[in-house]
Structure formats: structure tokens, C-alpha cells
């Protein structure tokens, strides 16, 4: 099977395509990049923690790259997700536990977005994205970073510029310059926050410790900061939106909160692929993949693999563990905060019997990441 991760998928039946990819397992190729795509649940689960793959880009000839592209590369290598080995392990030691559970105040604020939307839009059409998914995601990031609402919105704008390049392959120097400029803005913010001792959350304390760690330093703290805001906002918005879309499903109202949240995560799988590189020759379905080959582990396809999840596109019960948060040494550090926020939303919706019925849903063209541009509808 062939896919083209650069094509426009906004009008495609993406879940059907991902389920078909899962059937093809490791027989999927990306026509634009030539990457090997691994898509069955068993293969993805097996390879996520396997040291035959690394998240770190192998050394390559950079002599033809423009200065702005080189600056961008230099910035990305410091991110937790694009690093490996001792550097990543040290970074992870600082960050582990620094993005923990959300406290009751934050959970109440999250639930209040839903009750307020129910009061304010009792009978009119409203945007689920603007009224619930986006403000809740801002609240979660604000809680982790300890930033004000306004500051968090500003940080999220910078994260969006960076994510656009990662998810939708910006290919010109102007686009790359935008990423470098966004990164520089976050660097200034972080420098001021660390200098003025704005260390009100465990996450900011961890960034301060990373910055002062002689083997890591400020650029590592900046990488962790940029990765966190970029990796948190869009997938949260997507998952919360899928939660809204599923709330009209007949079995939603009677579901048990934790199980529903896991199904929301499985069915949304906001990051549909996670990137790795082969560290040695790997045999996949009798084919040998040479070292340094780029391998996309299909989290989205794996989560819709019918051999692991019968009737994969349906809201199910008591499913096995999904892979929406990846796995191995790069397993998502925000997973528990995400689960807390989804449970708060499911809790308030099932308690009051709220269900959202969408009338206009528009997807972003990207296959790599689930994103919505419009989600309008009303309470049922
Ligand atoms: C629904 C929301 C989210 C989803 C689906 C998600 C998914 C993921 C995935 C797939 C990875 C890569 C794992 C791998 O390649 O094995 C990852 C890494 C990461 N995530 Fe999340 N994420 C979400 C929200 C968050 C939030 C809210 C935060 C923090 C506030 C966060 C912080 C991170 C960090 C720091 C990493 C890098 C870990 C490392 O490389 O060591 N994520 N996430």
C-alpha cells in the first residue's frame, strides 16, 4: 500500500485509510519521502521500545542547507523527542514527574467551560473548537507552565508556527525563518521567566534545573519547553474535539469515564505517526531495512487495527491498551494530565447528560496530525 503524507486528506475517509494501512502492516510506503511506514498494532507495539530504532536523526551532509535551515536543525536536536541516549535520559530524569496530575482547581475550571457553554448556547449553534477544545487546552498548558491565560495564548501561537512546519512540511526559507523566529520568542520568554524566578510549577522548576545542569544548559530547557507546548496544544484540542463528536454516540452516556477517555484517545490518535530511524539493519516482513532509514510508526493505524480492536472505528468497551501516547523511552510525559482533563470533561458531560451534535466539521489537510479547522454544532 502507498500513502503520501504530504497530500491533502481533508476530504478523505482517514479512519478507513488508517484501518487499511493497519491491514498492510509493514508493507506501507510513503510515496513522497520513501519512508517505511509500520502500521499494524503488533508491529508498532513491538518496535516502539526497541533499540533498533532511535528518534535521533542520523548525521547527514548539511553543507547545502541555508543558514536558517541549519538554525532550525540545531534547535530541534535539543528536543526530548528528537534526541536520544545519555542526553535524552538526563533530560527525562529532570522532566519525569514534572508534568503530573492536574489539581482540583484546574479540573473545575475545565468542567466550567462545558457548563458555561451549555448555559450560553442552550439553543444556538456554537463552535466546539473555540468554546471548549481551545480554551480547555490553554488552561492545561497554563497549569503546567504556571503562565497567565494571555501569556499562554501567546505561547500557543508560537507553538502553532512550529507545529505547522513539523506537520505540514514547510519547504521554503521564509517558512523556516518563521519557525526560528517563533523559537527565539519563546527563548526570550523562558530566559525572563527563569531569570526572574517565576518557578511556580514543578515543570518550570525542572526547566530551571535543566538550564543549570552543566551537561544540558539553557538550549535543552528551551527544547523541552518548545516540545511541551507544541506537543501539548494541538493533540489536546484534537482529542477534546473527538470527545465532543463522540458525546452524541448512544453508548457515551452510559460509558464509564476512564474507558471512554481511553476510547477518545484511541479513536483520535492525534499524532498519527511517530518518527524513528533504524540504528541497524532491521528485517520487516522478509525485507531488510538498512540503517538510518526513516521509519514512521503508525500510531493512528495501529489504534484502528481490527485484529487488536474489533470494529475498530466504533466506540468500544474494555479494549486493550492503545498507543496514542507512543511508547518506550519517549512515552508522552503529559499523558496523565491529558487523561485528567478528558475525565473532567467526560465527567461533567455524563453527569448532566450533555451531548453535542455537530453540523459542520472541517479537517486540516494534514495526515500526520489530526487537526480540525471548524467544528460547529449545538447541544442535543
Ligand atoms: C491528547 C494529547 C496528547 C497526545 C495524543 C500526545 C502524544 C504524544 C506522543 C505520540 C509522543 C511521542 C511518543 C513516542 O514517539 O514514543 C509524545 C511525546 C511527548 N509529549 Fe505528548 N501528547 C499529548 C499531550 C501532551 C501534553 C499535554 C504534554 C505536556 C503538557 C505532552 C508532553 C510531551 C513530551 C514532553 C513528549 C516528549 C517525551 C520524550 O521524547 O521523552 N504531551 N506525546
UniProtKB/TrEMBL annotation:
Highest taxon above the source species: Bacteria
Pfam families: p450
Family to which the UniProt record says this protein belongs: Belongs to the cytochrome P450 family.
UniProt keyword Manganese present: no
Cross-referenced PANTHER family: CYTOCHROME P450 YJIB-RELATED (PTHR46696:SF1), P450, PUTATIVE (EUROFUNG)-RELATED (PTHR46696)
Protein name: Cytochrome P450
Record keywords: Heme, Iron, Metal-binding, Monooxygenase, Oxidoreductase
InterPro entries assigned: Cyt_P450, Cyt_P450_B, Cyt_P450_CS, Cyt_P450_sf
